[in-house]
UniProtKB/TrEMBL annotation:
Gene3D superfamilies xrefs: Nucleic acid-binding proteins
Basic and acidic residues bias locations: 153-172
Originating organism: Podilymbus podiceps (Pied-billed grebe)
Region (Disordered): 146-172
Subunit structure of this chain's protein: Interacts with PNN. Associates with the 60S ribosomal subunit.
GO molecular function: RNA binding; zinc ion binding
Sequence ranges assigned to domain S1 motif in this UniProt record: 1-71
Presence of keyword Ribosomal protein: no
The name this protein goes by in its record: Zinc finger CCHC domain-containing protein 17
Length: 172
């Protein structure tokens, strides 16, 4: 992080004179502010001193290209707002292009053509099979709540029938 001067301002960013070096670094307009910047000339002018952080060094065509950022540095104090480069990594992930797989057809032939080792049927694997090798099929057991409700209803029917029987006996 250092406090250099702005050398030139272009439509895509600003070139910064790096102190103690003849090189210049570029602050792209996406790295000038956390807000969207359409015209870098509205943010900085030639000769302004701004706090910048070196975010990338790249060798291209035997030339060293330096990328700088203003948005990860507090412009008042020069304090690093992103010491672990978390927001820079997030920005890089956002820039990655999404591959479109809609043109590729998905076929389920691999699963549909499989034969179960337990029952010998097509379309499922042995670990997903609910059939025993002898041919006996499993059936689902009703849940406990349903059994309790049914049992409670059966007990009420017995009590009411006993009460009806006792009232009939009294009348006789």
């Amino acid at each position: 992080i250092f406090l250099p001067q702005v050398a030139t301002v272009t439509e895509y960013g600003a070139f910064i004179k790096i102190p103690g070096c003849r090189k210049q670094g570029l602050v792209h307009k996406t790295h000038m502010s956390s807000c969207r910047v359409d015209k870098p000339s509205e943010i900085v002018d030639v000769g302004d001193k701004v706090w910048v952080k070196l975010i990338r060094k790249e060798m291209k065509d035997d030339k060293l290209k330096l990328s700088l950022s203003m948005k990860v540095v507090n412009q008042g104090t020069g304090k690093d707002l992103d010491p672990n480069n978390v927001s820079l990594d997030q920005d890089e992930r956002k820039k990655r292009t999404f591959r479109d797989y809609t043109s590729q057809k998905i076929t389920l032939e691999a699963v549909l053509n499989t034969v179960c080792k337990k029952c010998g049927c097509k379309g499922h694997f042995a670990k997903e099979c609910f059939v025993q090798p002898g041919g006996t099929k499993y059936s689902l057991i009703p849940e406990e709540e349903e059994e309790e409700v049914a049992a409670a209803g059966h007990e009420r029917d017995k009590k009411t029938s006993l009460a009806d029987d006792s009232s009939k006996k009294r009348k006789k």
